[in-house]
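Good morning,

Attaching, inline, the backbone tokens for the sequence recovery test we're adding to the shared suite. The designed sequence is right after.
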């Protein structure tokens, strides 16, 4: 699974990020809907599909479903270490890519 996306939030208190974060959160459900792929939110059971988490306080949490899952996209929009997510070009990759591009 060598297909990887990288991201980093350098200055989470910058005016630009503070303005962009709520818009990104608002757009996540639209991106998921437009992609038309199975996506799950927080779950520890491969058989349970939960709603995607996308809110300002708790951040974004999503993954593919069952055999089409990989690493979870999880971010709270905070400053942190350099992050990566390996999607293995599975169907949910389009959602991850759009969210990162939107960010």
């Amino acid at each position: 699974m060598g297909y990887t996306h990288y991201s980093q939030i350098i200055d989470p208190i910058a005016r630009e990020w503070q303005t962009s974060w709520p818009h990104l959160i608002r757009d996540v459900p639209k991106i998921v809907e437009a992609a038309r792929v199975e996506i799950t939110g927080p779950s520890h059971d491969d058989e349970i599909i939960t709603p995607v988490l996308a809110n300002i306080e708790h951040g974004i949490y999503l993954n593919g479903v069952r055999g089409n899952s990989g690493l979870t996209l999880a971010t709270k929009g905070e400053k942190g270490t350099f992050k990566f997510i390996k999607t293995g070009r599975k169907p949910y990759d389009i959602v991850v890519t759009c969210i990162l591009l939107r960010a």
